[in-house]
Specification:
By secondary structure, the chain is of the alpha/beta class. The protein has 11 helices and 9 strands. The protein has a single domain, classed as UDP-N-acetylmuramoyl-L-alanine:D-glutamate ligase (3-Layer(aba) Sandwich). About 50% of the residues lie in helices and about 15% in strands. A hairpin with a 4-residue loop joins β6 and β7.
Length: about 270
């Protein structure tokens, strides 16, 4: 199944509009290119409606939020909704500050999202209207484990039912769920947390996958999460003793670039609940 979804990304090469953060914007553009899609990065309110209209999908990331880009995100989101284009939300650091939390909640109220992708603390903040994070990382107390996986899956399904979006909660165990079905994904490597932007890259990758696979947002989002985790595994296997997180970042992008749909199908590690 994932094989066909990835093949569609390669075949269709969808143009994806990313309003993302300036810490990871280059890596996000490169991961979109690596998977076979095409990125465009534009965040000025004077042009985002035009750019979103040209694109097949939209990714909104609040990682370096500022007062200039908030109206841009809303305009782009409204335009994508009007045109029936898929929209991904990455609520980076929601719960860390009043501005981030309120902006994420406003986006959730005013824009219909196809996928919401964040760590468990960020998603819990969206669900409750308040929360705590370790900066832009998940709070240790919120961590998804084998012991609390059932309750985390139930939470993801309930939030998906409430929002109408696929909910992708990423961490040591990833959960990708709609109201009825959840993929529990165990691809990835702990070293991925040592790189700034693997989550941001995943949201951009997810936007490419859901854009290329209309009508299959759950499966497309799960395929993207598996692909990113598998890339982390492949990249780690290439590291030499003198390599560090910078090399690892490049190897992850290379792994997506060189990954075949068949390799994703074979390497994806998940269960359905």
């Amino acid at each position: 199944m994932f094989q066909n979804l990835f093949a569609n990304v390669r075949a269709k090469s969808p143009l994806v509009h990313n309003i993302t953060n300036y810490v990871t914007v280059n890596d996000c553009a490169n991961i979109v290119l690596a998977c076979g899609a095409s990125p465009i990065m534009a965040d000025d309110a004077a042009e985002v409606e035009d750019i979103t209209s040209l694109c097949a999908g939209l990714n909104l990331n609040i990682g370096t939020l500022n007062s200039r880009t908030i109206p841009s995100m809303l305009l782009a989101g409204h335009t994508a909704n009007r045109l029936g284009r898929p929209v991904v939300l990455d609520p980076v650091g929601a719960g860390a500050s009043h501005l981030r939390t309120e902006t994420a909640l406003r986006l959730l109220r005013e824009v219909k999202f196809t996928v919401i992708r964040g760590n468990i603390s960020e998603v819990k903040t969206l669900a409750s209207g308040a929360g705590t994070t370790k900066g832009v990382d998940a709070d240790v107390a919120d961590k998804v484990t084998e012991e609390n996986l059932d309750s985390a899956v139930a939470f993801a399904k309930a939030f998906a039912a409430r929002t109408g979006a696929v909910v992708a909660i990423t961490g040591a165990i990833d959960i990708v769920a709609d109201a009825h079905k959840a993929y529990c994904i165990r691809n990835g490597h702990p070293m991925m947390s040592s790189i700034t932007g693997t989550g941001c890259q995943l949201s951009a990758l997810t936007a490419a996958f859901v854009t290329a696979n209309p009508g299959q947002p759950l499966e497309a989002a799960a395929a993207a999460v598996c692909a990113m985790g598998l890339a982390g595994e492949i990249a780690h296997s290439r590291l030499s003793p003198l390599d560090g997180n910078s090399t690892y970042r490049n190897y992850i992008i290379d792994a997506i670039y060189n990954m075949t749909p068949a390799q994703l199908e074979e390497g994806a590690t998940y269960e359905v609940r």
